[in-house]
Amino acid sequence: MASSNNVTFPNKLLPYLLLAPQLAITLIFFYWPASQAIYQSVLREDPFGLSTQFVGLGNFRRVISDPNYLNSLQVTIVFSVATTLIAMTIALLLAVMADKVIRGKNIYRTLLIWPYAVAPAIAGMLWLFLFNPSMGTLAYLARSAGYNWDPLLNGNQAMVLVVSAAAWKQISYNFLFFVAGLQSIPKSLIEAAAIDGAGENKRFWTIVFPLLAPTTFFLLVVNTVYAFFDTFGIIHAVTGGGPGKATETLVYKVYNDGFVNLILGDSAAQSVILMIIVIALTAIQFRYVERKVHYG
């Protein structure tokens, strides 16, 4: 007699009760703020909410034609691409090296995972203290070597600083998934390639890396979203978008215009545009990049 693998709930209401907490969190913390942003993006409001005027797409036209917003878009592209590439590349390198360690493997992995527990703002402050031009230890070493390091005045150096801090914060997360992906690869495949005479580099690029494609694709999506949204605390703590808006990303400009300058309509329009950009990037990644991903 064949047994059925279908799960049957004793109460028809139970599945909905189990889903209710997650649905409530999604509605309260995603759909409700998103709907409010869309609603406010077509309005012009004074900072105290005493008067409201419907302007349609006027806020969007003003935002798109603003040179400062276009500058923030360029800064975001450079920042997100650099952060994603650096964080994923270093994490993959560390994961491959840690996978080769025989003694103390778990200790090394634990030490490499710890930085992920640091809050973004704290991570930014750590890097700011290390590279502060007046009292930073690493900044002092850079000046001793003859390099004029001052991210408070040099926009390119400020970008290097926030990218380094953001990538350092995300390396541990990527490392964790790459290690899990490496452990899932059958060792027999690598041993067979070694017996056939394939060198270490060739084994990695022809066997290991293709089998890590699902993990790499997942991390690409996660790191893109991280660079666009979750790095706000780092930028706020390290540079505040300066100097001269050299590190003002899109999410930080939303904060500046909405909470600092109190331009509520423009800030809401920028948040809607940012949401559309991230959704479009994710869709493009799933549409074109996932084609090359092999799920073994």
Automatic annotation (TrEMBL):
A Pfam family matched in the record: BPD_transp_1
BP-aspect Gene Ontology terms: transmembrane transport
Bilayer-spanning residue ranges: 13-32, 77-98, 110-130, 158-183, 204-229, 268-289
ABC transmembrane type-1 domain ranges (all copies): 73-285
Keywords: Cell inner membrane, Cell membrane, Membrane, Transmembrane, Transmembrane helix, Transport
Keyword match Transmembrane: yes
Xref: InterPro entries: MetI-like (IPR000515), MetI-like_sf (IPR035906), UgpAE/MalFG_permease (IPR050809)
Membrane topology of the entry: Multi-pass membrane protein
One GO CC term, this protein: plasma membrane
Record's subcellular location: Cell inner membrane; Cell membrane
Family, similarity comment: Belongs to the binding-protein-dependent transport system permease family.
Function: Part of the ABC transporter complex UgpBAEC involved in sn-glycerol-3-phosphate (G3P) import. Probably responsible for the translocation of the substrate across the membrane.
Summary of subunit composition and partner proteins: The complex is composed of two ATP-binding proteins (UgpC), two transmembrane proteins (UgpA and UgpE) and a solute-binding protein (UgpB).
Listed name of the protein: sn-glycerol-3-phosphate transport system permease protein UgpA
The organism of origin for this protein: Phyllobacterium pellucidum
Organism classification: Bacteria, Pseudomonadati, Pseudomonadota, Alphaproteobacteria, Hyphomicrobiales
